[in-house]
C-alpha cells in the first residue's frame, strides 16, 4: 500500500541525473558570472530593461508579443520536460500526473504523522509533504521514514523548508524530496520595507549571502539523489525581490530562476518549479511566464501546480480548478496539489479528479474536437492581465421596462427556468437569490441577472405570468427563443436568435444572439451591423470549448466588436463538488484570461441540480475569477505542522461571523510563513504569531499583536468595524417551500 502506481521505468534523462552526469545545456559564455562567493555561478542574464533590450533579450531573444509558453495553442499537448525522481515516483511529461498532499500533524509526533501519511497513501496519493521547522522535526523525519518502511509504505516524503538551511541539510538524509522557498530560505525578513537598488549590480551583489547557504544543500541533494522543488510563493517573496521587481509574477519567476542557476551551476538538475498564489489569475500568469522563460532559455524542468490557500468546500475546489485547470488545458503541469482547509485525505478526490480532467484533454476524442476548431490567431497576452469588458445593455427610448440590469458590469449570472418553477413563485424567488418583501421579489447582492425561458406559459397560466411580470418589474428579464415568442407572445421578453436568424430578421429593439463557435469570421463580423444586447456562446459539442472560445474572442478583437459574451454551459448530472471542478476548469480557464462577461448554466438533464446550487456555483466562479464579489473572500491556508491554532475550526468560526461581507477579503494564516505576504491580497489578516496568540493585520501592516486565541475573532470583527467595512448580518427568512430543482 504505497499510493497510486507510478511507472518505475527510468528515462535516459533520469539515468544521466542519477549517475551525476550533466545534461546538455547552453555554453557558460551565455551566462553572467558574479563576484565572490558567487563567482562559480552561471547567472541567467537580467530580464530588466526596455522591451527587446534587456540583457536576457539580447542574449536569448525577446519573449515576443505572444511568447511561446506551451507546445501548441490549437491543441492540448503536454509540455516536454525532463524526468525528476523523488524516490520511486517519477515526475515529468513522460509519466502520469503525480498527486500529492501535505500532512497537518506535528511532524515531531511521529506516530500521528505516520498514521496520517498511511491514510493519504491508502487514498491514492503518490507523495506527502511534511513541515520541518527545526532539528526536532528533521530527526523525526528519520523515524517517520523508518516506521513507514517497516509497515510496507514506500510513499516518498517531501520536507517543507523555510528559514532553516542547516535543518535542510539534516532532513535531506531522511526524505526523498525537499521543497525550498526562495523567498525565505535565506532571506526570511517578513517585512515590506522598500530597499533601494539603483543598479542591477547592487541587486546582484546580495546574491552572495544566499549562495553560501544554499549550495551545500544542492550538493547534498545531488550526492544522495534527492529531488527538490524550487517553490516560489506570491505571499512570501523576499524583501529584496519585492523591492526590485514588485509584488508581481515577474518577481516570482526571477526569484526561482536565481535558485535554479545555483542548482544548474552545480550540475544538479533533479528539481521542479512551482509558482503558487492564492489569486488564480496571478498563479496562472506566473506559471505561464515561467514556462515561456524555460522555452527561451532551453530549460525543461517539470512544473508542480497549485493554488495556495484556496480555502475549503466548493470555493476551494473552484479556485483550484480555475488555476490548475487553466494550466492543464495549456499542457502545463506534471504534479498537482489541491490545497484545502480540510484534512489532507479529503484533498485526494478533487486532486485526482482534476488530474483525470487533465488526462481527458489528451484523448483521441478530445483531440478531435480541438482539431475541429478552424485555424485562428490567439491574441492573448500571457505576460499581463487585462479583462475584456463587453458593452452593457442600455435603456432605450420607448422602453416600458428597465433593462439596465440585464447584465452586471462585474460579471453576470444567468440560469434557466421552467414554467413549473414559475408556478411556485416564493421558492423560485429564493432559489434565484431574491429578497422578498410581502411576497414580492427584489434584487439582492447575489440575485441572478436574467434567465432563459425555453417555454412560455400559456395566457391562461395566470400564476406563472404574474411571476414573470413581478421579476420584470425589478429588472430580472426572461430570454426566450424567438420561435417560441412568435407562437406564444410574452410582453417585455427578449428574443433569442442564432446569428443567421438575426441577420435575416427585421430589426429587434431587444435581442440576444447565440453563437456556436462554427461561424466564420465574415459571419461574426455581422454582429457590428445587428443591434443586440449581448451574445450567448454555446459552443457546439463537436468543438473544443476552450479553443473555439479563444478563436471567437480573437475574431471579436480583430473586427472591433465589443459585444458582451456570456458563456452558455450545460453541465452533466453530478454533485456540487464535481460541478465546481468542471465549471472552474471549462469556464474559469477562459475567465482567468479575461475572456467572458458571465455564465448561463443550463443542465443537460432536467432535475439534475437544485437551482440554488447552480446559482451559488456560478457566483463562486465569478468571484474565484476575480470578477464579481458577492460574499466575503477568504484566503485560508490548508494547515500543516507549523499551524499555531486549529485552522479548520477557526476558519469555520470566522466564516460564520463574517461571511456576509461582500467585497471584504480576509486572510486566515496558521503561521508567519505566508502570513504577511498574503495580506497583499486581503483587507484583513488573522495570523498565528505564537502558540495561543494571533496577530491581526490591516492590509500588509500588523496592527495588533499577541491576541489570545479565544479573543481574536471578536478583535477581528472590531477591526473590521473600525475600518468602516462592517455591516450587520440580515436575518434569514423562514423556510416557505422546498428547494427548486432545475427541470
TrEMBL record:
Entry EC no(s): 1.17.7.1
Name of the protein: 4-hydroxy-3-methylbut-2-en-1-yl diphosphate synthase (ferredoxin), chloroplastic
Cofactor: [4Fe-4S] cluster
A GO molecular-function annotation: 4-hydroxy-3-methylbut-2-en-1-yl diphosphate synthase activity (ferredoxin)
Keyword line: 4Fe-4S, Iron, Iron-sulfur, Isoprene biosynthesis, Metal-binding, Oxidoreductase, Signal
Source superkingdom: Eukaryota
Family named by the database record: Belongs to the IspG family.
Signal peptide positions on this chain: 1-24
Record PANTHER family: 4-HYDROXY-3-METHYLBUT-2-EN-1-YL DIPHOSPHATE SYNTHASE, 4-HYDROXY-3-METHYLBUT-2-EN-1-YL DIPHOSPHATE SYNTHASE (FERREDOXIN), CHLOROPLASTIC
Reaction(s) catalysed by this chain's protein: (2E)-4-hydroxy-3-methylbut-2-enyl diphosphate + 2 oxidized [2Fe-2S]-[ferredoxin] + H2O = 2-C-methyl-D-erythritol 2,4-cyclic diphosphate + 2 reduced [2Fe-2S]-[ferredoxin] + H(+)
GO terms under biological process: isopentenyl diphosphate biosynthetic process, methylerythritol 4-phosphate pathway; terpenoid biosynthetic process
